[in-house]
């Protein structure tokens, strides 16, 4: 009897260890999922950061929380960790990117992060194209209705995926279409001016301090230097260099809302 019990102890310990290990891994993941369900991504990330696992579910949850919390590079690193551990799960990766994009796009200033996630999403799984377009379209329309360039960028990115989007916008809402079109033209306008800024800097060894200095020294020859309904300003930064900003003024002829600022970057 004692011999039998002695031989059984290692087996029982092994089973117990497996059960405890599985429970220890699954319990934090379930807790993190519950926190995510209540939109507490920071709390969920805290739980996951105190857990060690090579399970794809763990990495997907961690990547999702990182993206939502603005830790974009860390989120992509987490996705890469999944790809090294398991193969042929790009569809699951794409779903994580799409889910994260749906959360962060609710904040209109996070359009650049949204576009980056969706760009990778469509690369991982081209079959998600329709869902991506719908998200961009719906949020793009929403943000064309408020000051800012978020709506423009979302619709512009959607048009890279589906060339018919701008035509669809024109037939759907003429006011929003004219706003989109005007912001697009201002972007091109700023590109033309920034080229003259670079020419000024090459000749003078420094950037111009203002649009007036650029004009006064003849560097805008052949270029219309004003655009009705916009105020154009040059800002210089020691690290990032010169930047142009166009701010929509009251009674903008194309209906771009006051407070909208278009940047050359």
Protein architecture, described:
There is one protein chain. This protein has 265 residues and is mainly α. It folds into 2 domains: 27-174, Alpha Horseshoe (Serine Threonine Protein Phosphatase 5, Tetratricopeptide repeat); 190-263, no CATH class. Helix content is 66%, strand content 7%. It is built from 11 helices and 3 strands. It has helices at residues 2-37, 41-49, 56-68, 72-85, 90-104, 111-124, 129-144, 150-161, 165-172, 174-204, 211-216, and strands spanning 230-237, 241-248, 261-263. Strands 1-2-3 form a 3-stranded antiparallel beta sheet, covered by helices on one side. Helix 2 (41-49) packs across helix 3. The longest helix has 36 residues, at 2-37. The protein is elongated. It starts with a helix and ends with a strand.
Quick synopsis:
By secondary structure, the chain is mainly α. 66% of the residues lie in helices and 7% in strands.
Query: How many strand elements?
Result: 3
In terms of DSSP E residues, the strand content is 5-15%
Please report the distance between the alpha carbons of the first and last residues: 80 Å
Helix content: 55-70%
Number of helices: 11
Overall structural class, as computed from helix and strand content, comes to mainly alpha
At the fold tier of CATH, the topology name of the largest domain is: Serine Threonine Protein Phosphatase 5, Tetratricopeptide repeat
How would you write the strand order of the largest sheet? 1-2-3
Counting structural domains, the number is 2
Largest sheet: 3 strands, antiparallel
CATH class of the largest domain: Mainly Alpha
Mean pLDDT: 86
Query: Radius of gyration over alpha carbons?
Result: 26 Å
Note the run of SSEs as H and E.
HHHHHHHHHHHEEE
Q: What CATH architecture label of the largest domain applies?
A: Alpha Horseshoe
| Contiguous runs where pLDDT drops below 50 for at least 5 residues | 3-7, 9-23
Inertia-based shape: elongated
């Amino acid at each position: 009897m004692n011999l039998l019990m002695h031989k059984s102890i290692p087996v029982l310990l092994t089973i117990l260890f497996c059960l405890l290990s599985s429970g220890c891994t699954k319990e934090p993941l379930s807790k993190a999922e519950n926190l995510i369900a209540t939109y507490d991504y920071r709390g969920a990330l805290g739980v996951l950061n105190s857990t060690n696992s090579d399970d794809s579910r763990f990495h997907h949850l961690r990547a999702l929380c990182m993206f939502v919390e603005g830790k974009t590079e860390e989120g992509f690193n987490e996705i890469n960790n999944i790809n090294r551990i398991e193969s042929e799960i790009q569809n699951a990766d794409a779903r994580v990117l799409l889910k994260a994009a749906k959360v962060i796009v609710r904040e209109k200033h996070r359009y650049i992060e949204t576009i980056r996630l969706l760009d990778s999403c469509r690369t991982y799984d081209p079959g998600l194209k329709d869902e991506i377009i719908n998200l961009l379209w719906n949020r793009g329309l929403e943000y064309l209705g408020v000051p800012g360039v978020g709506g423009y960028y979302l619709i512009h990115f959607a048009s890279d995926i589906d060339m018919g989007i701008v035509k669809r916008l024109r037939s759907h809402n003429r006011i929003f279409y004219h706003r989109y079109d005007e912001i697009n033209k201002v972007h091109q306008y700023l590109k033309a001016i920034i080229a003259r800024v670079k020419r000024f800097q090459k000749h003078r060894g420094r950037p111009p301090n203002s649009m007036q200095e650029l004009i006064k020294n003849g560097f805008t020859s052949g270029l219309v230097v004003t655009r009705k309904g916009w105020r154009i300003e040059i800002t210089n930064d020691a690290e990032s260099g010169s930047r142009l900003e166009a701010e929509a003024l009251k009674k903008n002829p194309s209906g771009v809302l006051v407070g909208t600022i278009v940047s050359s970057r």
